[in-house]
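Dear colleague,

Following up on yesterday's call, I've attached the two folding results inline so they're easy to grep. Please treat them as preliminary; we haven't cross-checked anything against experimental data yet. The first protein's sequence and structure tokens come first.
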Amino acid sequence: MDINIIENTENPQSDESEYEEIAHTAAEVLQLMEEAWLNEKFAPEILPHKYDIVECLLGQVSHVEENLSNVHNDDLRRSLHQMELDRLRYLVSSYLRLRLEKIERFVYFILKQEEERSQKGEENYLNDNELNFAKCYGQSLDQHFTDQLQFWPGNIPAEWKNQLIVPNIYSYVFMKAKNEIEGVMINHVNEEEEVVDLKTGSQILISYNNVGHLIRNNQSCLI
């Protein structure tokens, strides 16, 4: 996906340096958005939200749409720009769907984790809208199970709510180091442990629980 096609479609002769700067900035934002999307796609747990990147990318999309409004429908540039905008919208919508799917799948676990972060004064992984959705979804599930379990024969286990569905953090992922990383722990099948140092650009297949903190801290990314 290449966003370098962004240019001044309204007046190609006006202040070219300004639009070169806009294109460069948009390319950087797109790279960050693609990285956030891939991380969310391959990570078994929900990651800290990247809505600042989402909003910035949507702002770039709006800028291009404004320029396209002054381009004739028969102009080839309009078709090229429109195709690029469609790809960007797909990228954003896919990222949002991935996060909502995880919220629905692990809602009780995620709400518990968010409550613990709030008590510790840590940054939440969900933004306000996601947190409100998670709470409403969890309440709906509670009501559904309560309504259905009243017909359950015998005594209802009191601890049923504590049986949380949790992400499989021991699943294996492909990771790429964004900079030099020392002391990465690798757990082998025979239960032996090995500590390795990764160079910038190194790629490795590894259990997520060993590198999840590197993904969250932006030291590496999933591929």
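Below is the second protein, in the same order (sequence, then structure):
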Amino acid sequence: MIRRRNYRIVLKTLSVEDGGGYLATVPDLPGCMSDGATEAEVLTNIEDAIAQWIDHALSEGRKIPEPDRHYRYGT
């Protein structure tokens, strides 16, 4: 069993033109993303997406990356 890992989650507010709500991505897990109408919903959804990403990677025999503790924010 894999212990819970604390991956950095990046939240972005979506414009009305893009459907509104929020988009969450996980930079350490390529392609791992989810959306939701509220911040609470998107955070619940991204936790599910992280679990599914890890399960799929394990089923394919891929290594699960450790969370990057040395990231920097840019503009």
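For the second protein, one point worth flagging: The mean pLDDT is 89.

Best wishes,
A.L.
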